[in-house]
Amino acid sequence: MVFSVMTQHAAASANVPTRRHRSDLVGVAYLGTIGIVMLVWITGLVWGTIAFFNWLVS
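Above: the chain sequence. Below: its structure as C-alpha cells.
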C-alpha cells in the first residue's frame, strides 16, 4: 500500500537576520562596565563604613 505524503512548501523563504558579533561585544562591554561600577560602589561603601567606625571608636 502506498501513501502519498503531503508536503507544504513556503511561498517565499524567510530572511531571518542573524545576530552580529558586534552587538555581542557591545553587550559584554556594557555588562563589564556595570560590573566594574558596582564593584567600585560597593568598595566605596565598605571603605566609608570602616572609616566611619574608625572615627567613632577613636
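The chain has a mean pLDDT of 84.
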